[in-house]
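URGENT: need a sanity check before tomorrow's submission.

F., can you look over the Sulfatase, family S1-14 record below? I want to be sure the sequence and structure line up before it goes out.
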Amino acid sequence: MNYSNLILALAVSFVTFIVRSQDRKVPNIVVIFIDDMGYGDITPFGSTTNYTPNLVKMAKEGMKLTSFYVASPVCTPSRASLMTGCYPQRVGLNWGSDHIVLFPGDPHGLNPKEITIAELLKTKNYVTGCFGKWHLGDQPGFLPLDQGFDEFYGIPYSSDMWIGNKNWKFPDLPVMRGNTIEYLVEDMAGQAKLCSRFTEEAISFIKRNKEKPFFCYIPQAFVHAPRMASPEFMANAKTAEEGQIEEIDWNVGQILETLKDLKLDKSTLVLFTSDNGPAGGLSAGPLRGRKASVYEGGHRVPTIAWWPGRIPSESECDELTGTIDLLPTFAGLAKIDLPNDRVIDGKDIWPLLAGRVGAKTPHDRFFYQQKGNLSAVRSGDWKLLTNGELYNLKEDLAESLDVADENPEVVKKLQRMLRDFDIEISSNKREVGIVEGSRTLVPRPGVVGEDAYLPTLVLMKRDKGQ
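Structure tokens as predicted:
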């Protein structure tokens, strides 16, 4: 017997066991990020229109977060904040190159120098996957595989950026696997399949990586326009919105059941939320405003956190929290130090999610934006808009009564916060990613040569003679 080889084999086995044991001490993390879903669109948050039993069950087994915010009321800036733990102004994505969000072929994107949730978790041996709508840049260097994800299956931008949208000269909508285009969405039947396909890919990822810590990010394309659900959900729905929301609910149920079947539920944190407030045909519930609005309906989103045995069941948290807090919270759970070479705006909210007695929001202020600009601040129950309106959200959640005149000292205090943030962000903002010679991933139908690959916004300007 070769004892040297035996000892080497035993040593390798021991090290592998230790690494895997250490890995299993950190939780799996699943983030389900819905597109354009409003605060009042699901049953746990008051909807009587949409039937969402799986989300009801998720809320009963977990925690509702009723004051959970996105950092922007539109797609790209909101996603940039979730991925980086920063306000979008800080990472240069509060605005695209020439529009509030990124368009096909846009030269702008999330700077590869930014540290995403995926990149941070990979330092702790996490396997990472993104399944759904990316919308943080479609050029080389900006796509998920360049931003810390091991796998990507999805669309590079919004589902309405396709040839079916006659308001713009879009190319076809590509569905990608990694950096390769797998097929094109050609009709509404193809749009209707996106939700289930993203979920199937996410479940496959979870099953293949059940022995490792994983981060599974599922940014669904539903319920962004154009809207159509799978036939079995459209059959009993009065509207496409209802069909899509109920299909989302069913898919959430499939993910949670998969985790239970694999006996991963006790070791997996799942967070369900939306990227901004509701677009047309959807509901903000009791809140004023909608998608793109500075009011609560634009920024406050329906959110449920689930981790059986760790997050208390049938619980509710009304403390101020948001998507900017996910990166530092996940880092804390994974025992990872935050980078010290940059400002991170989010805070670790695990004490709140764990239901610790006396836990409070770590934020003494939170900032809103509209059309890419700083537009409001919330501190405690008070919210001041840059146009001078002041609301007490505890007494007036619907923001129906401007009380600025009755509270001049509060106005002054919050105005200072707005000024301080403006100054601080100007001094500590980082550069957006920019590439030269950007082009669309696929050509516009019926156009030949390089013109077929012109970025959508460049084409628009040329058509307008700009």
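My own read: DSSP finds 13 helices and 18 strands in the chain. Residues 27-353 form a domain with the Alkaline Phosphatase, subunit A fold (CATH 3.40.720.10). If you see anything odd, call me.
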